[in-house]
Every structure is written in C-alpha cells, then in structure tokens.
C-alpha cells in the first residue's frame, strides 16, 4: 500500500514538471522572434518642435536594440537556470521518493517474511500441541473402552448368574408344586367348593381329567355342585386307571382303523360293482339281451314294513318296487335288462354301506 502511494506521487511530480518545462520553452521561443522595425521605432512626438537627425535615430535604435537583446538573453538565461533548478529539484524528489518507496517495500517484505516465520512457528506449535492432545485423547479413549468392556463383561457374568439362580429357583418351585399336586397315597373324599370343576381338580392333583371322572363314575364334562362330595383317587388308582384308559384308547384306535379299512373295502367294492353294472348295461345294449330281471333285497311281513325298506333303498338312489306274495311282500330293485346287468346290480347293492344288506338275489321280472 505505501509503495503504491509513493509511486503515484512520483509519477504526478514528473508529469507536472514536464508540463512546466514545456511552457517555459515555448515562452523562450516566442521571445526570440524579431519584431518589425516599424514596431520598434518610436513614433515621433507631435510635441517636438523640430525633427531629430536620421543618424541619431539609427544609433539610438541600435543601442536600444542591443539593450533589449541583452535583457532578453538575461531573461532566457534566468529561465534556463530556473528550469534546470526545477529539473534538479524534481529529480532529487523523484530519487528520494523512489528510495523511500524501495525502503518501505523492503521493510514490507521483511515484515511479511517475519510474520510468515512467526505464523509457521505458531502453526508448528499448534500441530505439536494438537498431536499431543490427540495422543492423550486416544489413550483416554482406549482406557474408557477397556473400562466399558470390563463393565459389560461383569454385567454379562452377573446376568448369567442371576438367570442360573432364577432357573434353579423356578425348578425348585415347580418341584414343590408338583409334590403338592401329587395324588394322595390313599383315596380321599373332597367336598366341592365354589369355582371347583373336574378340570381344575384334575390339574390340582396332577391327574388326567378322564381318570378323575372315571373314579367318580362321571363324564369329563359333568358339572360339579357346590358341597358335593367326590373321591380323589390314590396314586396307585390313578396309575391303574391310566393303564386302563390307555388300553381302552388302544382298543378304540384299533376299532377305528378296522372300521376305516372296512369302509375303504366297502367303497372299493361298491366302485367295482358300479363299474361292473355299467359294463353289463353296456353289454346288454350291444347284444340286445332279452328279458327283464330284478334284484330282491327283502321279503317283508306286511306292506308297511315293505314300504319302510323301499324308502331306505330309494334314499340310496335305487328304483324300488314292492310285490305281494303268499309268503310276504317282496322289495325289488330294478328292473335291469338282461341277467348279466341284474347280477352286477346285485353285487353293487350287497357292497353298498348305505343299505347294509348282503342277502340280495336276482329273480326274473317277466
């Protein structure tokens, strides 16, 4: 900033001096121009009584001209001296301004260098201090992390120990509850209280509700009455009743399996009989068999019984007719065209679980 101000001041002084020098040179040039003779000769005064001689006027004119030339030369010399003095002063001022600007510039550069060095030293100190603080922070963070890990490990061990103790306490409590719920060693009477039921008492004494109901000749869904007396079976009775219940359940399961097998067999037989009947009817159409045959499924004692049986077969999807004879009322399914078709119909009826009969037989219809 100071260097720029001094440079501008020096340039301004140079321009001003140049303008003044140019003006002085112009003035000197104008003064050297010769004036006209008529202008230099003084007009004769009208007040003179007689004109001067011509010779005297020429001499005077020469003397005056020489005097003016001397004066003009003196003025020019003075102006040149002043101009030279001004130029010298201007050059001196410029040199001083330039020297001052250089000195200030050098001082500015030195100040900048010193400031940079100081900043570098401060930055170095800051970096060193930052490194030290960073290392201290890292060490502190490591210590905190190690402390946290130790604390977490201690908490985990404490939680594991607490869980183990809770599990053991729960197991002891369950064992105590189970001991309380064990059936008594001998049968005992129990008077029903408010809110009691077979399911609740069975859970209380740790036995199946079916066993408790069986010991009291009840159904598991029987509701107990307030004040009612029931028998709580002993442990041996419970074990025996459980064995009996398991055996009964096994018998029921075997029976169910047999019934399922029989139903499957009946279904398969019915399907086969239906297929045979369809094949027989198809064969009758193709061979144009003669005669109609029916399948007698029952011989009722009276018409009412025959009608009842007819409704059962009709509900199963068969065409049924009744025919009175001397021995009773026949219940006949059909008719079928051809004996082969009638035999297939008989097999179907005998294998149909809906009508539950095995005594059907074929007879000639007409």
Gyration radius, rounded: 75 Å
Spatial order of strands in the largest sheet: 4-5-3-6
Low-confidence stretches: 34-50
Instruction: Label the CATH architecture of the domain at 262-364.
Output: 2-Layer Sandwich
| CATH fold name of the domain at 262-364 | Alpha-Beta Plaits
Please sum up the structure shown:
The chain crosses the membrane at residues 7-25. The chain is 69% helix and 10% strand.
Q: How is this structure best described in words?
A:
It contains 8 helices and 6 strands; from the N terminus they run αααβααβαβαββαβ. It is an alpha+beta fold and 366 residues long. Among the domains are: 1-25 and 70-112; 188-233, Roll (Membrane-bound Lytic Murein Transglycosylase D, Chain A), CATH 3.10.350.10; 262-364, Sporulation related repeat (Alpha-Beta Plaits). The strands form 2 sheets. Strands 4-5-3-6 form a 4-stranded antiparallel sheet, covered by helices on one side. A two-stranded antiparallel ribbon has the order 1-2. α1 (2-31) packs antiparallel against α3 (54-181) and α5 packs across α6. The chain starts with a helix and ends with a strand.
């Amino acid at each position: 900033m100071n260097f720029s101000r001094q440079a501008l001041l020096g340039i301004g002084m140079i321009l001003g001096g140049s303008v003044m020098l140019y003006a002085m040179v112009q003035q000197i040039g104008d003064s050297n121009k010769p004036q006209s003779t008529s202008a230099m000769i003084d007009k004769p005064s009208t007040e003179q009584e007689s004109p001067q001689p011509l010779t005297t006027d020429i001499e005077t004119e020469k003397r005056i001209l020489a005097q003016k030339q001397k004066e003009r030369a003196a003025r020019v010399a003075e102006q040149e001296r002043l101009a030279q003095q001004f130029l010298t002063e201007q050059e001196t001022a410029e040199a001083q301004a330039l020297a001052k600007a250089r000195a200030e510039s050098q001082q500015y550069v030195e100040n900048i260098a010193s400031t940079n060095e100081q900043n570098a030293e401060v930055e170095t100190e800051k970096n060193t201090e930052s490194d030290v603080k960073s290392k201290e922070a890292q060490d502190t963070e490591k210590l905190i992390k190690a402390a946290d890990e130790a604390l977490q490990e201690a908490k985990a061990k404490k939680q594991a120990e607490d869980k183990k103790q809770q599990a053991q306490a729960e197991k002891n409590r369950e064992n105590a509850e189970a001991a309380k719920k064990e059936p008594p060693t001998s049968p005992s009477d129990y008077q029903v209280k408010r809110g009691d039921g077979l399911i609740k008492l069975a859970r209380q004494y740790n036995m199946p509700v079916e066993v408790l109901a069986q010991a009291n000749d009840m159904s598991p869904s029987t509701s107990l009455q307030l004040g009612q007396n029931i028998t709580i079976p002993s442990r041996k009775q419970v074990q025996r009743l459980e064995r009996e219940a398991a055996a009964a359940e096994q018998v029921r399961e075997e029976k169910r399996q047999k019934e399922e097998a029989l139903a499957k067999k009946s279904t398969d037989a019915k399907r086969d009989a239906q297929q045979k009947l369809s094949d027989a009817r198809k064969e009758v159409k193709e061979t144009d068999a003669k005669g109609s045959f029916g399948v007698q499924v029952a011989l009722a004692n009276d018409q009412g019984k025959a009608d009842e049986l007819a409704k059962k077969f009709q509900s199963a999807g068969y065409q049924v007719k009744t025919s009175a004879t001397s021995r009773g009322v026949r219940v006949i399914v059909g008719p079928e065209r051809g004996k082969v078709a009638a035999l297939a119909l008989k097999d179907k009826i005998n294998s149909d679980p809906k009508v539950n009969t095995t005594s059907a037989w074929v007879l000639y219809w007409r």
